C-alpha cells in the first residue's frame, strides 16, 4: 500500500524535507510493508528552493546583494531551462544584518539571482515572493536587470522605497528579458498602494512606523505612475512590497496561487498515482491554512483524485469542520504529545516520528 508524504516546513524548527523524513520513518516503524514516498512542498515562501531541490532540481549558489545592499550568497534551483527563485533568499527579513530598514530595504538581490539564472540559460523563471524585507515596488529588482531610475538631476536613485518619491526618469531600455517567461507564486491579492496596499498592510511587519507607512505609500503611488498605473490595482501587485507590481508591469509576469504553481512544478499529480493516503502538514494549522497555504492545496489536489488526506502539525487551531472543508480528514499535532511549545520545536523530529505512529495505526490497522 502506497502513502505520499507531502508536507511544508515547520517554520523555525524543521525543513519540509526533514518533516517528510520524520513522518516517513514513523510510518515505516509501525508498518514496514508500506510503500512511502516523500515529496516536500512549498507555497512560494521561504523553503521554496529547498522543495524544488528535494524534487530533483539542482541548487545553484550565486552572489547577490541583500536588502541593505551588502553582498550575500543566495541560491536558486534549476532543472532544464526552468529556474525557481525564492525572493526571501536574497531579499528576506532574515537577511537584514540588524534592525529593520523599511525605507531603504531593496529587492535588488532578487534581481541579481534572476539575472544569474538568465545568464545560465534559463528561460522560465518561477519566482516565489514570500518573506520580503523591502517595500520598494520591485524597483531594486528591475535595477539589477538593467533598468535605470534617475532623479531630476540625472542621478541614480539610492535603493529603497522612500527614494522612489524622487523619481523623475525611468529608463527601461537596458531591461532585456525577451524570450524569458516569468511566473509569480503568491497568494497575496493586495493592490500596490492604498488601504490594502503593500505599505499599509505589510509595512509594519517590516518595521515601518505610521510615518514610514505614509511615506512609502506615497512613493509607491509615484512609482506606479511611471511604470504602469493600470497594474497597480491588480490582485497581487502588493506582493513582496510591490515586487508583484514590477514583475507584472515590466516583466510581463503571470501570477498563480503559490501552492498550485509549485505542485505543478514538483510533479505532484504524478506522485499521487496509486496512493492510498496523503500526509501533508505545516507548523501551524490555522485560519491562514485555509487561505491557500500548502496543506490546503495538497488536500485539494488529493481530493480531486479521490485520495484521503491527513495532516501533521506543530499545533492545530482548526475545528474538525474547518479541516473537513479543506479536505483534511484528520489532523495530528505535536502538542497532543507535548504541551510545551518550546519542547515541540526543539524535539520536533522525534515527536513527529511518534505522531506518525498514530497515523499508521489509525489508517492502516487492518494491514498489520
Automatic annotation (TrEMBL):
Coiled coil spans: none
Identify one Pfam family in the record: Gly_kinase
Task: Tell me where the signal peptide lies.
Answer: none
- Where on the tree of life does the source sit, at the highest rank? Bacteria
| SUPFAM superfamilies linked to this entry | Glycerate kinase I
Q: Which terms does the UniProt entry file under GO BP?
A: organic acid phosphorylation
Keyword field contains Transferase = yes
- InterPro entries listed in its UniProt record: Glyc_kinase_flavodox-like_fold, Glycerate_kinase, Glycerate_kinase_RE-like, Glycerate_kinase_sf
* Gene Ontology molecular function: any one: glycerate kinase activity
| Key words, A-Z | Kinase, Transferase
Q: Which family does it belong to?
A: Belongs to the glycerate kinase type-1 family.
| Record-given protein name | Glycerate kinase
Species this protein is from = Amycolatopsis iheyensis
